[in-house]
Write a structure and sequence with these properties.
With about 325 residues, the chain is α/β, with parallel strands linked by helices. Helices cover about 45% and strands about 15% of the residues. The protein has 12 helices and 13 strands.
């Protein structure tokens, strides 16, 4: 009988973490998925149905103690300061994103952790990267502190795998759209905010230009990819970091799709500092390696995602 995983989710209160924990518990069992938080309170859905502990990834000794006491063999390291917030406090972004990651990698190496899943981002790319059908191996010259930490993190993932045999797996996530959690300070936040405002107020002021195209992914696909890459056969993986995408669209295109469901919806465009960040990122992503090596196959396009978001949020709001 295959031994059930013992999973630690670091950053369980974040946009992805707060939905990832219940998703993992559904598959691996409530008691086998330990959720951790630092400052942000964890949702009741996490606290009621499984173990929850306080954990700061910057505290190396605490990390090691938790790994040992809970017999952890799998880690999802989700704690991170995102792009827009990171530009407001770059030193803090470096501290949490980089020092937190290397602490997790070091503790994982010492305790022979089986798998470490750590998400990178399309923020690792920059203005010198090809913006159309961006390849997996390409120029990485980001213009944000968030992006810089992601590039450094990708290099660390490769280093710990080659030098110590630590099985670190990473995916460059696009913008994530969720019907359950609010955005957390990223440049793609508009693609979540627009649904709330369309339903509540029938109007939205977008901080990006109408024709700004970015890669996106609906949360159900994001959660699916986390388990897909975790359970992938290591012998088939030829790299530690994979491009990943769901669908690409412009701010104007998502607005037009929403208007099909809410005809009275209006939008205006007032670009702010996040426009420069968006302009440095890809429009479309080549994720063929993920499809070939571990069977990545997203289910949602813009039309299906919009229909689902509006149906779920309309009931709640």
């Amino acid at each position: 009988m295959k031994k059930m995983r013992r999973i630690l989710v670091i950053g369980a209160a974040g946009q992805i973490g707060s939905e990832l924990v219940p998703f993992l518990r559904n598959k691996y069992g409530n008691d086998n998925v330990i959720a951790t938080g630092r400052k942000t309170p964890l949702p009741d859905a996490i606290k009621k149905f499984g173990p929850v502990i306080y954990l700061d990834a910057l505290e190396k000794n605490t990390l090691s103690k938790v790994f040992y006491e809970y017999e952890i063999d799998t880690i999802f390291h989700m704690a991170s300061i995102l792009s827009a917030t990171g530009e407001k406090m770059p030193q803090t972004a470096w501290d949490i994103n980089m020092n937190g990651l290397i602490n997790v990698l070091e503790a994982s190496r010492k305790y022979s952790i089986k798998n470490v899943i750590w998400p990178s981002s399309i923020a690792a790319f920059g203005p010198t990267t090809p913006r159309d059908n961006t390849p997996n191996t390409t120029v990485l010259e980001p213009t944000t502190m968030y992006g810089i930490t992601k590039v450094a993190g990708e290099l660390l993932a490769e280093y710990y795998y080659k030098k110590y045999g630590l099985d670190v797996r990473s995916m460059r996530l696009p913008g994530i759209i969720s019907s359950e959690t609010l955005p957390g300070g990223g440049t793609t936040d508009y693609a979540v905010e627009i649904f709330y405002e369309a339903i509540k107020n029938k109007k939205y002021t977008c901080f990006l230009k109408e024709d700004t195209v970015l890669p996106m992914m609906y949360m159900p696909d994001c959660l699916k990819c986390m388990i897909d890459i975790l359970e992938a056969d290591d012998s088939k993986l030829k790299r530690r970091v994979y491009n990943l995408t769901g669908t690409s669209f412009s701010a104007g295109e998502i607005a037009a799709e929403i208007k099909k469901h809410i005809p009275e919806f209006t939008i205006e465009y007032k670009p702010d500092f996040r426009q420069a960040i968006a302009d440095s990122w890809p429009k479309t992503i080549d994720d063929s390696f993920a499809r070939e090596e571990w069977g990545w196959n997203p289910e949602y396009d813009l039309k299906a995602m919009t229909k689902s978001m509006i149906a779920i949020l309309s009931k709640r709001l």
